[in-house]
Each structure stands twice: as structure tokens, then as C-alpha cells.
Amino acid sequence: MSEFLNLLAAGLTSGAIYGIFGACLAVWFRVCNVLNLAVGDFAMIGAIGAAQLVQIAGLPFGAGIVIVLAAAGLIAWVFDRVVLHIAFDRGAGAHGIVSVFFYTFGLSLVLEGAARAVFGTQVYGAPAIWAGPALAIADFHVQRAGILVIALAIVSGLVLWAYLRFTVSGRAASACGESVLGSRIVGIDSARFRRRIFIVTAMLAALFGIVESPLSGFTYMSGPTLSLIGVVAAGFASFRRPGRAVAAGLVIGVAEAMLGGYVSTSYNDVLLYAILFGIIILRPEVLGLGPEPA
Amino acid sequence: MPASARSGPAALEVEDVSVSYGKFVAVESVTFSVAAGECVAVIGPNGHGKSSMVTAVAGLVRRGGAVRVFGETLPAGSPGAAVRAGLVLVPERRHLYPELTTRDNIMLGSYSRTRRLRARQAWEDVSGVIDMFPELARLLDQKAGTLSGGQQQMVALARGMAAGPRVLLLDEPCLGLAEAVARRVYDWLGQMTQTDMTIVLVEENPVHALLVADRALRMYKGLVDQPGVAA
Asked: What is the DSSP string of A9-78?
């Protein structure tokens, strides 16, 4: 029983990582039909930036968090103004499939290169927000940072779900992704929604990096891996449903942990992609990928 | 109401409006005005600047010249300002949100005044619009992308009405619709002309347009070459 519970805790923790990056990707894709392949790099900036400011520069932890989140938001704002605004609002850039991933992939490469130049190749971990030994009940152990990671993922998923479901602003954000012209006709500023949600998800990813880094540590190369698992989790949520992305991430994480614990860790990735392919082929409507309406 | 009876202040003034796409001039120094409560048709063959003109008036494309709604000058390229001034466009090809429900599509017409509300409150604010389109009542929870072309056109009109227009711009409202459906759209439009709503109707088919319009402007090669054909 304790083995099952420990695997469950480990699975929920890794699943929360899937889920939160999936949620960040899904909510922004819903607004502007672009995949944020730099979302993991914002987490990297959060983790390494906070570690640098607190452990090397000697700033108080709270101040370090505020500065790092502000920096992540500022980078996102500048990128939107300098690249996305010109590409999408002025119609100067390439459209179609290139715009879906190219610009944010470029941002990922730039952030990775800048992080290597500034921070080097060491492994960093921000100080733990909730410090102390792992919590234990009999043979069941769970890391405090792990609890925060799970809580942050669930709260983020719920907040994004409620925003999209219950507010006019959330419906307007969805409308932007459905029809830019249709949204502008009724006075919705689609560029502002794109910018705001990009900034919010960048800051959320940075916060997640700070919270998660005591568990795994971050290097300048950590970003793309996190973005990729986010894409997979978002895929389980038709790239548009952040709440479902968190739920899907948690289920995937637990399934992986159980498979790793009771069978072999060699099959984790196989399981993940087998489930995704199976759903896409057999039940695409589960992912919102059913046939186009006539 | 005959055009002669519409002698009030101008609801819409379009002055020297021009639209260019690169070197191509789509609309060239178009000037006209529409009295409050008047229905004016803009007719002419396809590709001669009718849609470019109304989308520019609604703030959706860059333009030169001036647009005033009940004396208020609208900033160029600001559709939000146009909607807040009461100038609402129902566009050609509808441009709905296919994955959102009929209810959400209509509700978002009121976005400029309900954007800080919860969705349920905003719907209560605009749900009276359904009285004008009773067939939509049973389709409120259906995704707009699954509706027929005629139903989608009704949703587009309802979304426009939810914005609370004082001046309504209708761009080819019957494009691609079956004749029976087009007749229903024109029946509704006929009812609107009996209210104090000011309407600018862009229509390729002058026979359709002159059924409801007080007068018509003809656009040809980006110019208004007949500024006042009486209906």
C-alpha cells in the first residue's frame, strides 16, 4: 500500500508539471492559435534567476521572486511588441503553419543562449518556499515542494477554467482564437488579449520554475523539455482547454509512475504516446478533434 | 418612411474616406451622409469597394478621411470606438466564433459594455434580442459552427443587435443564402426600417436592396458615382 501511495505522490508531482505547462500552452493557443514553445524557458528563467538573486546576490527570497516574475513578464511584453505585434497585427510576418511555432521556437533559442551566456552550465535550484524534510505518514513520504507543485497546478487549472467559463472576458479571449475579425467587430482587442495572456502564462511558468526547482534543479537547457511535455499535455486537451490539460497531466503522471513502479520505467514514453495516438485514432472527439462541421 | 421625412441630424457622415491596399486604391474619396432613421443601400458590382468602404467606416481597416456618428468623430482604425459610438457592422460572411455556442456569439455582441461582467449577467442584459429571432431560442447551446448558413446569418444579425446599434452596417447579409432564407432576412430588415434605426445596407443585388432602402448609392471602381438613386 505504501508503495502505491509513494508512486501516486510521485506521479501526481510529475503529472502536475505536465499539467501546468499544458495549461499555459492551451490557454494561449486558444486565444491566438500559436504554440508557446518558450514556456519552459520562462520556467528556467524563474528557477535560475531566483537562485542567482537569492543565493549569490543575497536578496531576500520574496524580493527575488518579485524581480524574477517581473523580468519574465517584461521579456514576454517585449517579445510581443517587437515580434508578435509586427507579425500578427501588422500582417508583416509569415502566416499559416510557420506562425504556429516558429516565433516562439526562436524565442526559446534566444532565451536558452542568453541563459548559457549569463548563468553558465551549472545546475541551479531556487530556495524552497516551504522548507523542511519530506512529510511522512508511516511509509508514505511526500516532498513539501511536490505538494506545492501539485497545488499550484490544480489552482492554476481551476482559475483558468473558471475565467474561460464564467466571465465575459474569458469568452472574449476564446472568440479571439475563433475569429480575429469577428472579435474586432464587437470591440474585442485581440492583440491585447494575446499580449496579456502571454505575459500571465510567462509569469506563471516562471513561478512554477521557482516552486519546482528544489525538486529537480534547472540548467539553461531545461526549457525545451518542459515545453515539449507541455505540448503533449495540451494535446490531450485539444490544445484549447487549460483545465483539462491539468487533469490530463495528472492522469498521465500517475499512469507513468505506476507503470514505472510496477513494470518498467522504460515504457513511460511509449505509454504516453500510445495513449495519445489511440485517442486521436479511436476517439478524436475526446480531444475536441472530431470531424469538421458541414 | 420616405426619405423626405428623414430630415433630422445626420446619423452617419462619411467624408473623403479612402482605402488602399498597397498601391491598389479600393475606395477613393467617398463622401455621403445618412439621416437618423434612414435606410441607405450601397449597391454596385463585386470588387468595386463596397465592403472595403463599410469595413473602413467601422474601423476595421486603415483609411483616410473622416467618419462621424451623430456628430462624434471616430478615430481611424478603432472598431472598439465605433461600437461604443453605436456604429455596428454585421460583416459579409458573418465571421462568427464556430466553437462557441449561439448564446456566447450573441452575448459577445455586447462586449463593449459588458466586458467586466460574468457571462450569465451579460446574457441577461442581451437575451431580449432573441425575441427578434425566435428560431434561435432552441439553438442557444449549440455550437455556431454546426448551424446552417441561414441560422448563422440570424446569429450574426442577433450579435449585431446585441451591441445596441444606433447605426447598423449590413454587408451582403444574404450572400450565399437560399432564396427563402434571404426573404426572411429581408422581412426582418423591413421591420427594422420601421424603427428609428439608421441602416446602411451593402448589397450587390439592387432589386433586393431597393425593397427596403429609402435610397441607394452606387459604387463603381472605388467611387460613389451615383450619390442618390431614389428607391
From this structure: HHHHHHHHHHHHHHHHHHHHHHHHS---TTHHHHHHHHHHHHHIIIIIS---HHHHHHHHHHHHHHHHHH
- pLDDT tens for residues A180-233? 999 999 999 999 999 999 999 999 999 999 999 999 899 999 999 899 888 888
DSSP E strands: which ranges in chain A?
Answer: 135-137, 140-142
* The pLDDT value given to residue B209: 86
Which one, of B66, B138, B78, B145, lies nearest residue B105 by Cα? B145
Distance from CA of A165 to the nearest CA of B (A): 8
Confidence band of A36 (pLDDT split at 50, 70, 90): very high
CA distances from A237 to A114, A165, A193, B27, B110 (A): 32, 15, 21, 45, 29
Q: In which element (H, E) is residue B65 found?
A: strand B64-69
Q: Which chain A residue has the Cα nearest residue B105?
A: A175
Residue A290 has pLDDT above 70, yes or no: no
Measured distance CA(A259)–CA(A278) in Å, rounded: 18
Give bridge partners of residue B12 from the DSSP assignment: B34, B69
- Chain A nearest C-alpha distance from B55 (Å): 9
Closest C-alpha among B63, B75, B82, B69 to residue B17: B63
Q: Does A165 sit within 8 Å of B119, measured CB to CB?
A: yes
Residues 220-279 of A with CB under 8 A from B: 240
Q: CA-based angle B35:B41:B46, to the nearest 5?
A: 145
Beta bridge partners of B39: B199
Please judge whether B108 and A183 are an interchain contact, meaning their C-beta atoms are less than 8 angstroms apart.
yes
Contacts of B71 (CB under 8 A, 6+ apart): B9, B10
Where chain B has pLDDT below 70, the residues are 1-8, 226-231
Give yes or no for residue A236 having a pLDDT over 50: yes
**Nearest residue to A172 (alpha-carbon basis) of A151, A196, A149:** A196
Cell of A20: 501546468
Put simply, the answer to whether A182 touches B104 (Cβ < 8 Å) is no
What is the CB neighbour count within 10 angstroms for residue A273?
A: 12
